[in-house]
Amino acid sequence: MENQKQKGVPTKYKPEYNQIARQCCLLGATDDDLAKQFEVSQKTINNWKKQFPDFLQSVKEGKLIADVKVAEAFYKRCVGFEHHEVTREGEAPYDSLTGGYDKKMLKVTKIVTKYIPPDAAACLNWLKNRQPEHWRDKQHVELAAEIDLTMNLDGPELGEN
Questions:
Q1: Residue 26, CB-side half-sphere exposure with 13 Å CA sphere
Q2: CA nearest 48: which of 97, 89, 12?
């Protein structure tokens, strides 16, 4: 039996793409963004997800983690939350490498707890998605009516003189 060669163009996929895809998805990348990152078509990304289970798993993990973080932040905006605002002061040398000041050299002078109230737009968005039958922009209202229509087909309307 002859050794059969694979047909088609060899894949550009490399196992190290798994970690890159996961990291990109953590930053909110879509499949289209991944295609641009790897310089392939979106169809190729879909093929890789079918052919390489580790690639698919990396994409799923990255997207799930990012989605959970966004969902948590969105939920906080819907219900309101508190956060601590820290003020640091002191004489710290400017670090030109980082473009800031060395926080280790600054002393905490004030910690203020601030309350961020719920965001009405976030709440409405939440409710529209969770309870669309009650919160959608357009309500579907059915009207039932009976109409009695009678037409007189005799007379000048039909061209009689």
A1: 9
A2: 12
Q: What is the dihedral of CA 74, 62, 27, 45, to 10 degrees?
A: -130
* Residue ranges covered by each domain of the chain: 82-116
Pull the structure tokens for residue 45: 């990304």
Could you tell me the two tokens for 120?
């009405």
The string of pLDDT tens digits covering residues 74-130 is 999 999 999 999 998 877 777 778 877 777 778 888 999 999 999 999 899 888 888
Tokens at 49, concatenated: 């997800």
DSSP state of 88: E
Chain center to CA of 60: 14
What CA–CA distances, in Å, run from 16 to 20, 38, 131?
Answer: 7, 11, 42
